[in-house]
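DM from R.C. (forwarded with permission)

"hey, sorry to bug you on a friday — could you get me a structure for this? deadline for the figure draft is monday and I only need the backbone to look sensible"
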Amino acid sequence: MRITLYTLALGLRSRFHKANKNIMKRLTVLYLIAIFLSFHTFAAEDSEKSLSQMRSYTACLNCDLSGVDLSRSFLHQSSLRGSQLVGADLRWSYFEEVNLRRANLKGADLRHTVLNKVDMRNANLSNADLDNAQFIDVDLAGSTMRNAYASNADLSNSIFDNTNLSETDFSDSKLSGVQMRSVYMNGAIFVGSDLSNAVLASAKMRDVDLSGANLKGAILRNADLTSADLTDADLSTADLSPNTKLDGAIFCRTLTPWGEDNTNC
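My reply, with the result:
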């Protein structure tokens, strides 16, 4: 059955290659659904096989998959580069070595999604929901994640260099070892987050809420923390160079390299 579905979808997609945009979108979605149905059937038949045996899928470059339901899907070494996934449902999915470079995931639902070694450079994740998502060695350099929700997510060791994270909520998330050089994150929320050993050199962090955050070993050279809330934050072993801006920052029960600072209590 799954072979028939897959073959049918391929045939339709080829026959109507020159059809109008709306028809092509429907055929593309049918093509992907056939693939996912095929894999889900396979998984149901042999659920004990490891994720490393996931099949590889054909590239779908610059596809319009806005609003599509791909929840609980498995993608391995696929490419959705430049595709439109605006408002797509990707909950509980597992993506491994997938190319999402320059993909538009604005408003997408990635709750509980696992992304392993995924290329998301220059992607758009604005207003996306990443609650409880897990990123493993994900490269988001140059991407946009404005006003996203990433509470309780595990984004450890991911690359965010030159990313726009303004007004994004990272409350209680794991961000240890992340690379956030020259990131723009004014107004972002990191309440209770783990930013230990994070590289935040030259980051724009004005009005950031870091209350209760762990910043042990974090590199904050030349970072701008103007008016940041550092209440109960731990910066005891953070690298704060003379050029780190702390004007108007709130210090209360804050552990710093110069001891506990209660200036604003």
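R.C.: lifesaver. The chain has a mean pLDDT of 84.
me: no worries. The radius of gyration is 21 Å.
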